[in-house]
Inverse folding.
């Protein structure tokens, strides 16, 4: 067969070669098409990833910006709180200073009130051996009147003691005030008034330390008034009531001189 149809063999060879070439071309074309699809898909995936990453980056950037803004706001709030705290600390310190000043003033006021109250509160005093409570005003007025008497201004002393007994009718000073009032009146030759004052002492405090002297002064006033009988009676009563007193000894001497 190969001998008889050499042309047929050539054609057959060419056909086979063409077929082989066609198959090879088809295979190459198919392989190229397959590679392009894979590449496209890969590119799309990469683009999607890039887009996704870009979106995430954008989102994270926005979150970062918001976070910075929040941090700045928080920092501002912290600074504001610090400023408020400093202000409150300053105010607290000022309040403490004000409180200390107020307490000091309150203490001063309380001390001042106590001092003023003590000026009006009764205090114990002792006059002519008698202890009693007296208001500061009583003590001041009595001592002032007595000072005037000791200065020898008997008119002023009489007025002072007369005013005292009227102003303080319940005073513990009253018996002594009557005694000095009577002496001031005697010095002023107001004998009748002096007798009244001395008798007031004896009626108010018959056992008073000044009682014997008051009785003797009454007898002296009666003698000045030329009432010898009354003077004798007063001196006798004095010696009976206060026999151990110096006034009783003086009464015996005066009684002997009375006519």
């Amino acid at each position: 067969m190969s001998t008889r149809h050499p042309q047929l063999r050539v054609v057959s060879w060419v056909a086979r070669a063409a077929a082989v070439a066609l198959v090879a071309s088809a295979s190459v074309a198919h392989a190229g098409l397959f590679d392009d699809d894979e590449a496209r898909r890969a590119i799309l995936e990469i683009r999607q990833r890039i887009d996704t990453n870009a979106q995430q980056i954008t989102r994270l950037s926005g979150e970062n910006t918001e976070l910075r803004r929040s941090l700045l706001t928080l920092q501002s709030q912290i600074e504001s709180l610090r400023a408020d705290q400093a202000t409150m600390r300053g105010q607290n310190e000022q309040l403490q200073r004000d409180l200390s000043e107020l307490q000091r003033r309150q203490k001063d006021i309380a001390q001042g009130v106590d001092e003023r109250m003590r000026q009006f509160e009764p205090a114990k005093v002792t006059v002519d051996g008698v202890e009693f409570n007296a208001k500061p005003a009583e003590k001041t007025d009595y001592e002032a009147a007595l000072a005037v008497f000791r200065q020898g201004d008997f008119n002023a002393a009489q007025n002072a003691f007369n005013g005292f007994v009227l102003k303080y009718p319940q005073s513990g000073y009253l018996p002594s005030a009557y005694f000095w009032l009577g002496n001031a009146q005697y010095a002023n030759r107001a004998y009748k008034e002096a007798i009244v004052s001395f008798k007031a002492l004896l009626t108010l405090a018959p056992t008073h330390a000044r009682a014997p002297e008051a009785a003797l002064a009454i007898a002296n006033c009666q003698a000045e008034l030329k009432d010898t009988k009354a003077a004798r009676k007063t001196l006798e009563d004095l010696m009976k009531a206060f026999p151990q007193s110096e006034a009783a000894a003086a009464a015996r001497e005066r009684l002997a001189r009375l006519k």
Notes: The longest strand covers residues 123-127. Residues 75 and 81 are 10 Å apart (CA to CA).
